Amino acid sequence: MASSRPGVGRLIVVEGVDGAGKTTVARRLVDRLKQRGHDVHATREPTDSFRGDAIRRALDDPDHDPVSEALLFAADHAAHVAGLRQRLAENQLVVSDRYSTSWRVYQSITLADAWPDQADVDPATWLEDLVAPFELAPDRVLVLDLPVEQALARLDDRARETEKFERGRFLETVRERYQALTEQEGYTAVDATGSIEATVDTCLQAIDPVLEGEP
Ligand code: ADP
Ligand code: MG
């Protein structure tokens, strides 16, 4: 995933399972990059917009439908990407807390459950094709990796044990998909088992080569 935009802005994406530390690490990363003098724009998916709000509402709805949810994610991403293209053209360094990488992983799993009889439709391919016409490839995808149990322990929620068990099983699959994508797509796995600062340092080292071409 080498940059195809020499001399212009860069897009860094922070990924990983729930509780991996993405939001915390992305914020620190932005602070550190600003301290170094970079013109940084912090963003996230779902975005801070009415489209992102629609997704958050859908995710809270116990009757939500995975197909419409995937389409909402795609709509939010399309608008996000349109704005980011502009920022990259203005030489900004963009750090995104989750991106299409996230929802394509998560939705491919929920859609596989929703479409058990449609063996001829691979959900991951369907999602890939959906975004392909407008997709904006990141310059670096940092996948914060750690055991799911450790990630869940970081999330101080009061879910019942059965919910935690279900979520843990789902997140095991999410982690496996991220690991497979890291191999296939050249994402960067970042050991996220240590302190926040140690993880941020590893992220900075991983993006250094990407920043070298910056004007
Ligand atoms: P995510 O955005 O991946 O779901 P968060 O950044 O919200 O994760 O982090 C979840 C919780 O874990 C937060 O309370 C945060 O302070 C804590 N946390 C994040 N990174 C670490 C770390 N490296 N070590 C210990 N706790 C962490
Ligand atoms: Mg977060």
Q: Could you say which overall geometry the principal axes of the C-alpha atoms support? A: globular
**Major β-sheet, in short?**
5 strands, parallel
Helix content: 55-70%
Rg measurement, Å: 17 Å
Describe the protein in words.
The chain is of the alpha/beta class and 215 residues long. It has one domain (10-211): P-loop containing nucleotide triphosphate hydrolases (Rossmann fold, 3-Layer(aba) Sandwich). 56% of the residues lie in helices and 13% in strands. The chain has 8 helices and 5 strands. It has a 5-stranded parallel β-sheet, with helices on both faces. Helix 1 (22-35) crosses helix 8 (196-211), helix 3 packs antiparallel against helix 4 and helix 4 (100-114) crosses helix 5. The protein starts with 9 loop residues before the first strand and ends with a helix. The relative contact order is 0.21.
